[in-house]
Amino acid sequence: MIRLVIPLVLTAVAVFTIVDIVMIAQDRVKHLPKWAWVLLAIFTSVLGAILWWTIGRERRVRSGGSGGSFGPPQRARPVVGPEDDPSFIDNIEQRRRNREQEERIRDLERQLRDLDDEPKQPKPEKPEQ
Fold it and tell me: In the chain, N or C terminus with fewer CB closer than 10 Å?
């Protein structure tokens, strides 16, 4: 069983390394051109994989601070308070207008209900002369 597992793991590492070399952006490859790294990974699979993963590629730091090399590059954004975000201000204004409109509608509905609830009084009759 172990005779089967070790070659499978080494083959998987070599294939994963070659795919990573081919897929990585050129500006993140260090020390050798991509084609040289591919040849190194093919002809010296274990040594090539170790060299590639340790010195051959540039690692990018994720925004969380942990070292990671996958995913799109993270650009540092300046810290902006919500009062500086125009969409936040627009959202606040829209919510305020909605509240005012709902309040006007409730007031008009109340007035209509009050008008409907008023008992109709008969008109006073004019005395005959």
Answer: C
3-class DSSP state for residue 62? coil
Distance separating alpha carbons of residues 64 and 52, to the nearest angstrom: 25
Task: Pick the more confident residue, 83 or 73.
Answer: 83
56: exposed, middle or buried (C-beta count within 10 Å: 0-12, 13-18, 19+)?
buried
Checking if the pLDDT of 81 tops 80, the result is no
pLDDT tens-digit map of 15-61: 999 999 999 888 888 888 889 988 988 898 889 888 888 888 887 65
Asked whether 52 and 40 are in contact (CB, 8 A), the reply is yes
The CA distance from 32 to 46, in Å, is 18
- In the chain, where the domains are located: 2-56, 82-116
How far apart CA 65 and CA 116 sit, in angstroms, is: 66
